[in-house]
Design brief:
The protein has helices at 26-31, 49-53, 85-93, 108-122, 133-136, 174-186, 208-220, 316-324, 333-350, and strands spanning 11-22, 57-62, 97-99, 126-127, 140-144, 147-155, 191-197, 224-228, 233-242, 248-257, 259-261, 271-282, 285-302, 309-315, 358-359. The chain is of the alpha/beta class. A hairpin with a 6-residue loop joins strand 13 (285-302) and strand 14.
Length: 360
């Protein structure tokens, strides 16, 4: 049910923020090294953290395994090996749930298992990968403000193969997805969100396989679908479905969220967004009450003293407003033009008369 009616009492609501891909690079990794020998990546989130922290729940895709304890053999693309402080910075910024990506086996099976255990120790859900077969049979449901929300994460495939069991990774398997959605409802989920890491890289529109799968998943009973992986933003739409009882329903989908934090600097891949949506429960019915988005852009700042480059995620509208008052002087003229271009590209690509987006 979409945009339900309010009543005078008994209403519960949850606000969720979802971001796209968080990936390291060698430049981002090097930028986190401190003069005292420590590592800190919190600077990347300093401008966006106040927005993330306000949400009841925040999600993002996190790319690559965590390096072995005591190791300094960190790396970016093509075979990621993350410093442990890198995901810690995302958690500190306010992210509550991280989602799996195609780089899970970049450091083999040992790296895969080490990553699962690392996130368990952090008490930070990392969805879509499993240490035991028993775990793989469960669905993740989080209750907040008296609303039970199922978060399901699936992946098109992995870049590096390693000896593994089929149950270790949630791949895009329509039969499994249908079963997981049904299990979510059986376990009392009021609302089910399905996350996909899918699509063709650098393509600004979804391919046929994405569209076909999305319609199927919507018909299975997903209440909202969020995608990522192409490194660029892809459009959003409302999918109309009819269930076996003949009831028509509309399901929101955004096919790709773009890059939230990465080193990619080309037009369309240097930006992303935070999807902000409110889920409301009223008189036993749960529905998507409102949805909006916050365009973001990654700025690179060079520390002249250390020679380090640091990536900082900026909320575009706030930054453009500051530019009007000339308070955001750390941006170069080229930066100012690029961030304005990112705003225009994002809003022109996403705004849709069929979706009542709240602009922020």
């Amino acid at each position: 049910m979409l945009f339900g009616e309010e009543s005078s009492s008994g209403i519960s609501s949850v606000e969720i923020l979802s971001a796209g891909d968080i990936f390291p690079s060698q430049r981002i990794i090097d930028g986190g090294f401190q003069t005292n020998g420590g590592r800190d990546f919190s600077y990347s989130y300093q401008s966006i953290k106040p927005i993330i922290e306000k949400a009841d729940i925040a999600t993002a895709w996190f790319g690559g395994p965590i390096a072995e304890e005591g190791s300094t053999n960190f790396s970016g693309y093509p075979r990621y090996n993350n410093p442990p402080e890198y995901p810690l910075a995302a958690k500190d910024a306010g992210f509550d749930i991280l989602l799996h990506t195609n780089h899970l086996f970049d450091q083999g099976l040992d790296g895969f298992l080490r990553t699962i255990r690392f996130f368990k120790k952090m008490n930070l859900p990392y969805l879509g990968i499993y240490e035991t077969e028993e775990e793989s049979k469960t669905v993740f449901i989080l209750e907040k403000n008296n609303i039970k929300i199922a978060f399901l994460s699936y992946l098109y495939g992995v870049n590096e193969e390693a000896p593994r069991k089929d149950w270790m990774v949630n791949l895009i398997d329509l039969k499994k997805i249908k079963n997981d959605i049904e299990q979510s409802k059986q376990k009392g989920a009021d609302f089910t969100i399905v996350f996909f890491h899918w699509g063709t890289e650098y393509q600004r529109y979804p391919d046929k396989e994405q569209r076909k799968a999305a319609k199927k998943i919507a018909s299975f009973g997903a209440d909202l679908i969020v995608g990522s992986h192409p490194h660029v933003i892809q459009p959003a739409e409302m999918l109309e479905t009819t269930n076996s009882s003949g009831q028509t329903n509309k399901v929101f989908i955004i096919y790709s969220m773009g890059n939230f934090l990465s080193s990619q600097r080309n037009r369309y891949s240097d930006c992303g967004l935070l999807l902000r949506y409110q889920i409301e429960k009223n008189a036993g019915k749960t529905y998507l009450k409102s949805i909006g988005y916050i365009p973001t852009w990654v700025m690179w700042h060079n520390n002249e003293k250390t020679g380090q480059w640091k990536a900082v995620i900026l909320p575009i509208k706030e930054t453009l407003d500051l530019l009007k008052t000339k308070k955001e002087l750390f941006l170069t003229k080229e930066d100012a033009q690029n961030i304005k271009t990112a705003w225009d590209d994002t809003t022109e690509h996403l705004d849709n008369p069929g979706i009542p987006f709240l602009h922020e």
